[in-house]
UniProtKB/TrEMBL annotation:
InterPro entries tied to this protein: FKBP19-like, PPIase_dom_sf, PPIase_FKBP_dom
Organism name: Punica granatum
Recorded GO CC terms: chloroplast; thylakoid
Top EC class, one word: isomerase
Pfam families the record matches: FKBP_C (PF00254)
Protein's UniProt name: peptidylprolyl isomerase
Keywords: Isomerase, Rotamase
Reactions accelerated catalytically: [protein]-peptidylproline (omega=180) = [protein]-peptidylproline (omega=0)
GO molecular function: peptidyl-prolyl cis-trans isomerase activity
Domain PPIase FKBP-type: 15-134
Amino acid sequence: MQDLRVGSGPTPKVGQTVVVDWDGYTIGYYGRIFEARNKTKGGSFEGNDKDFFKFRVGSDEVIQAFEEAVSGMAPGGIRRIIVPPELGYPENDFNRKGPRPTTFSGQRALDFVLRNQGLIDKTLLFDIELLKIILN
């Protein structure tokens, strides 16, 4: 886990909803991107909350590594995490827990890596930005 930018303010508590932006890469499959920040926004983090990924901390909605990374972040922070398969998607299925790729090509790339048992390293890399904490 590496902080690319440290945020400021409180960190999210269990039960609070967080809004994040994220990139995902397959390390063992030529570093292929399976999710990238919305390019139509020019790489900036402007946009409506509905454009971003939201989840409730402690709700078991996301993979363990993602949850652990976000729970220690403050708004405005960007964190890079390397996710070994055991902290990644359960049963190699991104439909069981988030975050999920939002494009068909991203889903296909991630699915290809997760389902090729023993042939491809399933280690993933995520860059996560915590945009805001929604007080419930």
